[in-house]
Amino acid sequence: MNVTYQNGSIVAAGKYHETAFYDMANERISVIADGKGGLSRYRLTNRSEDFIPSFLSLDLCFGGERLSPYLSKKVEMIGRMQKVILTTKQGELNVTTFLAKEVNGVFFLLEGAAPIDLCLNCRGAKSESVANTLCVAGENFMLSSSAEGEWVKENDCFYTSAEGKIKLLLSFACDQEEHNAAFAAFDELYQCALSETKMPIPSSVTSEEEKAMYLSAYFTAIENYKKAGEFRAFAAGVNYTDPLRTYYRDSYFTVLPLLTTHPEMVRNELLTLARGVGKDGSCPSAVKSDFTLFWGDHYDSPCFFILEVYDYIHATGDNGILTEQVDGVSILTLIKTILKRLTSMTDQQGLLYKEGAYNKRDWADEVNRSGYVTFVEVLYYRALVVASRLFSDDPTESSLYQKQAELVKKAINDILFDEEKGYYLNYKSTEQIEDNLSVDTLFALLFGVADGQRAKRVLDNMESLLESKNNSEQGGGDFGVMCVYPPYKLPRSTCHKSSRLYDYHNGANWCYLTAMYAYAKSLYGRDWRSPLLSTFRYMTQNGHYTPLEYFSPACPAGSALQGWSAAIAFVWQHVGENNFFE
Description:
By secondary structure, the chain is of the alpha+beta class. It is 30% helix and 25% strand. Strand 17 and strand 18 form a beta hairpin.
């Protein structure tokens, strides 16, 4: 389909039969609209089943004529809304699918200047038990319609017709009272979904394409905010909700564009993450919605927790979060406990040494990065720096962290910077040195580990090696920024998807890292737009209309609507300012 951009929307033009899959989510569900008025997925958080095992389709007749699959159409996608505009002999027929912020249900609005007849095919609906002309209830679903119709259980279909407008609400595994209240508020919720897309746009945005990119990334953050009992936090993405969990590393980048626009969400995220901090200061990869741990004891998680607390306070001025009690312990005390443990794990160089040949406990969890890992060391350095500021009322503690930070910075530059290559090593152990260029080492630039000249050398190499448009040797064309190049040397260095070259952690493009790379380039007066635009164009031109987790021409795309890809919106918000991470 031909892709353009208009009023913040991604617009795909083609024929009626062509799909335009678009992920949408709210605090309770995630769905995929198919670009034809139907759905290809409906999932609730903490539920493994897909309530639409095959498809849900709207078969339409407009002005007395069945719609040809070869009709021209436009599909407008923005926020939690997909609008299909069909061009017929009787004029335009619009089919809008949207979600409300909190409702377990999908809303459908059909509008046109002629009579509309429809058949809603839903094979996921089970055993209708209560049916009248306006509402159908079954074992696992409810359907409400503004126009009188008939549910035919033998067909799993609802048939209805009306002059000019039909409103529908379909819910699975729902509460009947909630469903009825939501349908009664249809018009109000539709206006809310529309108004949600009308937000201030950063002055750095100068084109319709950039506006669509910004809004797509921004909505990726807010659509991943979830509520489940006492759990209030951000999911990593639509494929990471069973079990529902929130990751320390993912949430750090997810909340960056929300620090000033939705501080209450960020605060809730921090209080949720705090419940995963162990009494010894260890942190898992993620915290599940029942507050049990998901893959314990990661090297990067505790640092990201400290960084997120600091960024939140820096953006909002809410120092009160430091005295918030979680299981009887304040956030500030948790930070002290975390750093005590991390410091106890350092060697005589002052650096963290990842023991074991198959230690995968950082973001690149399909790569056996052992020993000194530049990414981990730089995070530790940044955690010490911001802790020295958070403990400003305790000069002794603050000074201790600052001195440790200086030692760590020196050790990183002495041990991990390769003068000959002009960049930081990926990792270095007594058994192996991996000297490919990893984009995650760019945090040495953002966090002040690299001085000006050294930072410029690193950026020079990243431009020539990691920006795919400048690296003809990789063979995949322009698909944005690779996470490493060249790929890992030895098969035993990687596992699972990352065992394949240019897949996952072994050379795919990760949107959140591309965003941070673009931001680093902006700080040094370089072309920061190009990495973002290459990434966005590759996704949309290949039918991915929400930010992906990762991708390359050599591998299947990762999860859609991936939370930390919202870091793209952060870049548009902050380019042209002083370094956010100073």
